[in-house]
Write a structure and sequence with these properties.
Pfam families: Cytidylate_kin. This protein is an alpha/beta fold and 227 residues long. The longest helix has 19 residues. The structure holds 2'-deoxycytidine-5'-monophosphate (DC).
């Protein structure tokens, strides 16, 4: 038995994984690892180098030249791509769509999964993504599959963008979400799916606080089982 604790949170785009995981990490004093940000940094590298997501040979070559690492500033995750902090450059829809497209490639996944496993072996982490419970941390102490209906997820995203003053269409956002779900759930390598031993939480009718409290409660129960 290891002496670190790992919590895995998987789920589709826009389910609120990062908000929830960040809050739980703060409560438990765990390190929050946003693995989507790592795929986004890789995607940025490919976009900058004009590489097509469908060109497997080019992707493999370019992935070899992309060094993605994480660092923490005041507890906030920073993503470093070949020495450059790209945290502020990876949140666009363009990069998100590219991240989903390039994450189908085994070479990209193997490189990032290795780093994720290594991080989780050293520290108490709460890690979110698509394949954490199924592939990266199969022995996690607690696994959550966090989802919400595509309408609810689209509405949340729409409100976020509106708040930032960005023009957007609710229908287009929902279509993007449905497309991304399909791509992430139907790829060959480590598709998004609920691990057999994961707890399903549908946040469509739950507040963030309710979800956070439920996860903290589930973790407490797991701690009792482990001690
Ligand atoms: O969570 P996100 O939207 O930042 O993730 C962007 C894309 O990266 C997502 O659509 C699929 C891919 N991804 C993945 O394949 N595996 C992960 N563990 C995390 C993200």
């Amino acid at each position: 038995m290891t002496n670190v604790y790992n919590i895995a949170i998987d789920g589709p785009a826009g389910a609120g994984k990062s908000t929830i995981a960040r809050a739980v990490a703060e409560k438990l004093n765990f390190v929050y690892v946003d693995t989507g940000a790592m795929y986004r940094a890789m995607a940025l590298h490919f976009l900058r180098n004009g590489i097509s997501a469908s060109d497997e040979a080019d992707i493999s070559l370019a992935a070899g030249n992309a060094n993605v690492t994480l660092s923490y500033e005041n507890g906030v995750q920073q993503v470093i791509l070949n020495g450059e902090n790209v945290s502020g450059l990876i949140r666009s829809e363009e990069v998100g769509t590219m991240a989903s497209a390039v994450s189908v490639h085994l070479m990209v996944r193997e490189k990032l999964v290795e780093l994720q496993k290594e991080l989780a072996s050293r520290e108490n982490v709460i890690m979110d993504g698509r394949d954490i419970g199924t592939c990266v941390l199969p022995d996690a102490d607690l696994k959550i599959y966090l989802t919400a209906s595509s309408q609810v997820r689209a509405k949340r995203r729409y409100s976020e963008l509106k708040e930032k003053g960005q023009e957007c269409s609710l229908e287009e956002i929902e279509q993007d979400i449905i497309r991304r779900d399909y791509q992430d759930m139907n790829r060959e390598h480590s598709p998004l799916k609920q691990a057999e031993d994961a707890v399903l939480l549908d946040s469509s009718d739950m507040t963030a606080k309710e979800v956070i409290d439920r996860i903290l409660m589930l973790f407490k129960d797991k701690l009792k089982e482990r001690s």
